[in-house]
Amino acid sequence: MNRLVFSFLLCLWPALALLTSCAPSGGKQPTYRIGFSQCSMAGPWREAMLAGMERELSFHPDVELRMLDAHDNSQVQQQQIRELLRGGIDLLIVSPYEAGPVTPAVEEAYRRGVPVILLDRRTASGQYTAYVGGDNLEVGQTAARYAARLLNHHGRIIEVLGTPGSSATSERHQGFAQTLTAYPDMRVVSQVTGDWTEKKLPELATALKAHPEVSLIFAHNDGMGRGAAEICRQLGLDKKVKIIGVDGLAGKNEGLDLVQRGVETASVLYSPGGEDAIRTALSILHKQPYKRENMLGTIVIDSTNVRTMQQQTDKMITQQEDIERQQSLLQRLRATYASQQTVLYGLLVTLLGATVLGMIAWNSARKNRLINHQLALQNAENDKINRQLVSQNEEISNQRNQLEALAEQARADTEAKLRFFTNFSHELRTPLTLILGPVEELLTSSPDLNPAQRQDLALVRRNTQRLLQLVNQLLDFRKIEVGKMAVRASESNLVAFVREIVDAFEKPARLRGVTLRFLAAEPVLPAWFDGNILDKVFFNLLSNALKFTPDQGQITISLQRGEGETLRVSIADTGRGISDQDRAHIFEWFYQGDQGAVAKGSGMGLALAQGLVRLHQGQLTFSSQPGQGSTFVVTLPRELPEELRSIEPAAPTLLTLDEPEALATDFGPETEATTTDAHSETLVLVIEDNPEVNDFLARKLRHDFRVQTATDGHSGFRLATDLIPDLIVCDVMMPGLSGLEVVTQLRNDWRTSHIPVVMLTARNAPEQQVEGVQAGADLYLTKPFNPTFLLESVKTLLANRARQREHYRRELSVDSATVTTVNPDQKFLQDLTALVEANLTKTDLSVEDIARSLGISRMQLYRKVKAVLGTGVTDFIQSLRLTKARELLLNEALTISEVAYELGFSSPSYFSTSFKARYQISPSEFRSLHIAPQH
């Protein structure tokens, strides 16, 4: 009997469950909640905006809209926005009354992660998700163009402005005035200040009487356009003066109605944008693509299209009414269906119960016969399954043994690699320590060192410390891997601890113009932490921030209480951000992503920081937007377990900066003693992106030459074309424009094609050296280089260049002043010679004239000629004149005076003096010597 009752209840349960699920549900919660902060509901245009929202939302019954009216009060609107946020909205739509006062509340919503749509007007900040609105500047421009067509480009206009100070007023006036400048016969003779909601315009009557020649009025909205039409009717000008309004709304006495009745000649459509705002909001909520900037278009509504616009509006209103009636009918049908469904399922349950009771008796007899047969089949099946399970267990056991053997072998291999890794790191520490010790001793106990020696030793010490830091990071990595890194926390003030680390970055940041902002919510935030561990974490994070923040950028370090018993330290920069492909890997050991123009690091900093934070039972997270910067957040517990606490606080060991090559070099006051250039006319340009190597090269070369420096390829090439140096020392690997590209550009530019180039690089493969020589380098040195060898190589290249200048001078000293074109230097000499020869007759021919003709500066011309010929430009011109004089003196038809004036000499006597100084013979003696006497 119990089994029969159980079977009956078992069959009855699905029907009861189905009946419960189909019962009418009351009070279904909306899927999304949208908050709308409206600056004001005064006026038909604002009413049309809300009506458009409600019309679009009628297709989405799962979305709830809550609208609050601020009545044109910015303080009230701020409070209402925060009230909407407290109410738990999924998206916020704001139509601001004033941009500035409302901005903080909008930014607060945006920072909370609530999407923000600005409707019709903007705030004073770029922190918003999307903007929907019309272009008031385009409205003014469209009205002006239509007015020009309407008046055949000739007429006088009165402009009725909207509320003073409104952005719509200023932008519509600006667009209208700017466009009218293209029509000189059209002019605004008067402006009348109105109000968006005020239809009476007493000042307009005065303006019309003062300017009877007015033929058109441009009103900033249709309400003021209707007021202007009433003034014209009272003055009997309604047939003469045409009126253009703005908005083009439907409804009695609105834009469409006024144009259709002839009260206004035209109205420029300015859409309220309610439907577009809701459509954009739904795209954002549904995670669909959307446009951030949604500018609504505008058209002119006049007699040619107003009927079509009115018909479309009437049809839309009719369709909306049909939709509302259908929705009402659907709700009534659902209620009827729910009540009938309840009765139907009640009858179904009753019928099902009677059927089940009848079947239970029949099934009981049938089951008794089948049970024995099923038991026999089940026993046979169980035996078969047991045999299969035994076989599978043996196979799984064998596979497990193989996997354990492979895993053990992998652990042994990994352990051997890590052991070698650790031993190698320890081996590095010994020679680095032996280097650092003597250097420190020399710096502290050798008072007779000169400034240059002290500076070199400081350079050795700084880079040795850098290598030691990398080795320490490798060892820390090994300790974390094997669980040997211990936390010894003590209670202290986290604010003071972080501030001390930030202070270490203040000077290198200031040298690059980077602003460091330290913001602590409270002056004291006590916590249990291990200073030695967190010191490495924050140094790595700040080093990365400084490395990737451009010059004149900003880094913000913030400390505040987190959720629960936690503290949050965030480091935000304004750098290039982290690409999508790098985000999943930045915490991996030795991973180096796309770092752009900055020098690559070791790939250990962030991985080590995350491992140390986790060891400290904290969490390291980040957020980044490409092109806007990155923010790393360290979340730490305020309390730590007893086993992680230490009785004596451990003093943190401050690290050196993670990427010193990215920071400006500072050698202290001794630098001034080595910056004076040698008394030499030879100018050497150093192009090196590493500031320490750059300074080292400059100091070594300044003993013998004048030196200019550049820190990247682009600025180096600009300096080379401006200064025309005698020699260039250039690094190969540089961000932006590489050294090979610099050499190629130098060789392709005739201004710099003659300059010898020495290339320095760490790339020492033979094919890479061939590549440098093929690019045009005169000498290719690999780092580390011998400074003495570099200096002697520079002197040799300059000596070779002097011999080349002597060769060019000999070519120019022959009777023909023409130089055969072989290389860019000879091509330059050919062009220069042709230019001077074409102007030899000019007495006032100057260096400035020649430089201007060649398209370069006077200084560039002087240094180019000096580098190629070893002489000045004036001497070169004189040499060509005297060479040409020998040719002309052989012509007996010309007198010596005529030759002098033909070659641009100011007087025959000056010509004779110059000729004799050059050739040790007077012009008359030269002529008599080379021309045979006639008999």
TrEMBL record:
Name of the protein this chain belongs to: histidine kinase
Signal peptide residue numbers: 1-17
Annotated TM spans: 343-362
Residues recorded with modification 4-aspartylphosphate: 731
Domain Response regulatory: 683-798
Keyword annotations: Coiled coil, DNA-binding, Membrane, Phosphoprotein, Signal, Transcription, Transcription regulation, Transmembrane, Transmembrane helix
EC number: 2.7.13.3
